[in-house]
Amino acid sequence: MFPKDFLWGGAIAANQAEGAYLEGGKGLSIADVLPVGEKRIGKVKLELKKGEFYPSHEAIDFYHRFEEDIEMLAELGLKCFRTSIAWSRIFPNGDEQEPNEEGLIFYDRLFDKLKSKGIEPVVTLSHFETPLHLVTKYGGWSNRKLIEYFDRYSKVVFARYKDQVKYWMTFNEINHTHTIPFLAAAIDITDIRDEREKLQTLYQASHNMFVASAKAVLNGKAVNSDNQIGCMLSLSPIYAATCNPNDVFESYQLRRRSLLYSDVQLRGEYPKYFSRITKENKLELLIEPEDLQIIKEGTCDFLGFSFYRSSLHESGMKILGNTGGLLGKKNPYLEETEWGWPIDPLALRYVCNELTDRYQKPLFIVENGIGVRDALDVKGNIFDKDRMGYLKDHVVAMAEAIKDGSDILGYTWWGPIDIVSAGTGEMEKRYGFIYVDKQNDGSGSLTRKKKASFNYYKQIIQTNGEKIDFTDYLGEV
Ligand code: BG6
User: Fold this and answer.
1) Which of 26, 444, 453, 472 could make an SS bond with 89 (beta carbons 3.0 to 4.6 A apart)?
2) Whose C-alpha lies nearest to ligand 1, atom 8?
3) pLDDT digits (tens, 9 = 90+) for 30-82
4) How do the domains of the chain map onto residue ranges?
5) What is the tens place of the pLDDT at every residue in 251-266?
6) Euclidean distance between CA atoms 443 and 452, whole angstroms
7) H/E stretch holding 449
8) What is the whole-number distance in angstroms between the Cα of residue 428 and the centre of ligand 1?
9) Which atom of ligand 1 is nearest the CA belonging to 234?
10) Are 387 and 341 in contact (CB under 8 A)?
């Protein structure tokens, strides 16, 4: 039922895996100043503090160990591997004229290694790792200066990797600009009290990113018209908490708050409903005359999205979110992970249908997975049944969506090897099929070890999603 060239894969982000945060000429990125803890995505200190532990500085040391890691991922059978280029490896401050050759060489080696193993790289240009200098000097994406710097960066990497990379995405979870603005748009709005001003900053940053994304698409196509360049959103669905029409309508509006981002990036224009938002909030966005033409021409080829959970909305409730999407009310019909993320595979089928109906463009599920606190048994084995169960149910849901008519290019499991959590900076919120011996406080030998789910995902890939039973992998039960 899965197309024969379906891209089964895994996904990571540079800042959550590479470490080597100042090696090879790299500059600081916004991820490098985030300490451990849930508060890290709120009010942020823009400099390093002595004595504080910063998980991205070493992460899982992928920078030095990628060759052995890719050997393991090849054994897993991955057809594709999604990672990001750390912008601050290429332009350490973000605003230089010339790129850092050592940074470019690192990704030459990484992509060559993937290609040598028959694994297709899928590359995000900006995954929560804007160079820090672009925040301290320019204030992040609300400043349109960043369009110019991103344009330069994208031209350099499209040209450099034109023979190695075909699948690209511009901004990771661009719609998270509303809920986690520092990660998604490199802006800190925590001190802005005035609601209008907050929205003005958010939407100005969004507009600048739309123009930057469209320019990047045009740059990528100019280098190689075969390049497939997607946008990327977090699109876990929002259910109305009751059939009260107020709950239903407000949930719909909230959904549009996200879909605005794919509407613009896939259709090439602002939708009508956005005029009402700007009018009612008295927004005065700085839109240069050429911007709308650039947005029109630089539309994306596919819609990449992350899916972890669904959420439940009641009208009037405070709208909060984290890396998995919105934080709504508790859904009594769903179980939750240890981190309180509802498990809802049917919602994946729902969202694929919703997006297919809306856009009729290919979809790429570029993040899906479950964070689990893995336990090693006396022999040191990890029988991660919950992860296998989650994987199975989501593969089934995806297969159903394909039968419903969705055109899905591929599926990249989030964190096939344990990496640092973006939301909390923890290591113990593990997604991997490969265990990395590293703990929340930074201790650990960094050795890698297969979990039971490793062979299970391998089976799924080998059988192209046909054999999804995992009883063979449960150990002695
Ligand atoms: C997505 C991000 O929001 O969720 C990833 O694109 C992130 O970077 C993933 O890691 C899972 O979130 P967390 O907080 O569990 O790492």
Assistant:
1) 26
2) 422
3) 999 999 988 888 888 899 999 999 999 999 999 999 999 999 999 999 999 99
4) 7-473
5) 999 999 999 999 999 9
6) 24
7) strand 448-450
8) 13
9) 3
10) no
The CATH number of the domain covering residues in 7-473: 3.20.20.80
The number of beta carbons lying within 10 Å of the beta carbon of residue 442 is 13
Tokens encoding 186:
């490199």
Nearest in space to 250 (alpha carbons), one of 186, 317, 303: 317
Indicate if the pLDDT at residue 476 is higher than 90: no
Residue 261 is given by DSSP the state: H
Instruction: Give the E-state strand segments of 151-307 in sequence order.
Output: 167-171, 228-234, 238-240, 302-306
Q: Indicate if ligand 1 lies below 6 Å from the C-beta of 40.
A: no
CA of 207 to the centre of ligand 1 (A): 23
Distance between CA 345 and CA 411 in Å, rounded?
14
Token readout for 415 is 């964190």
Distance CA 221, CA 215 (A): 10
> How confident is the model over 122-152, as pLDDT tens digits?
999 999 999 999 999 999 999 999 999 999 9
> Cβ distance 429 to 339 under 8 Å?
yes
Q: Please report the beta strands in 235-268, taking only residues with DSSP state E, as ranges in sequence order.
A: 238-240
